[in-house]
Amino acid sequence: MLRSSVSRTKIFASGAPPRGNYIFQMSQCLVPNKLRTLGKGLPVLEMTCKLGHKQTMNLPHHRALQDVSRRIETAVQAVGRKASEVTLIAVSKTFGAEDILPVVQAGQMAFGENRVQEAAGKWPALKSSATRLELHLIGPLQSNKAADAVRLFDAIHTIDRPRIAQAVAAEMAKQARQLQLFIQVNTGDEKQKAGVSVGGADSFIAECQNKYGLQISGLMCIPPFNEAPDTHFELLAQIARRNDLENLSMGMSGDFELAVKFGATHVRVGTAIFCARKSNEDQPI
Known about the structure:
The protein has 285 residues and is of the alpha/beta class. The protein contains 12 helices and 11 strands.
């Protein structure tokens, strides 16, 4: 965050701003034109958030949530589905409780985190204050974090190898908790990316169900950054259909509407709600 810039940024939570030369962006930040040069070369959404992140978090988040919700509703109607068939997961990784609380207050109940340790530092207090909150683990899980993950999360989207399946099954039995579980499929067969291979997906699903006794809810994928996502969404849907799995976790800020077209039941949206990540990692969520 550019602290010197933030102090010069004027944000107005309600009513019309005073006279002056301002720009208004979808992040709900109002940024003076004289600060535009500080964000030169950045995408508009990222620029406005970097210049006014803290103030943005204090503005009504129903606007951003309503925008995403309207887009989901339009997408489902276009293919004859209902908006209730799609769960919006607000991806709050790298953001603190002070940033998340306004989104909760705006009505959002499902959130996604990438790391168990980071989530453990902020979510217990948040969940105790709002009992209807759902927390989804959407990042890679290590077996030595399985106990903490089962204790904290309500869903895990990244079951991708026998060791993790075994650890999660053992911890759910030990803690008497039943989580919603997704198997992550590496639809692009990318060496650097987690997920079971496309060729091994069917056998791994059966192994999770029959050997480890897991109730697999659905599948998750993250398409390759430089490829059209529609082929990957269709591939994941095909694997789910032949294995009688109902849920599909797919689609992020840049392609969730397309994912809905291909049957997504859970979309993971971060940037369109929270603005840019606070650290540089992977592609926009």
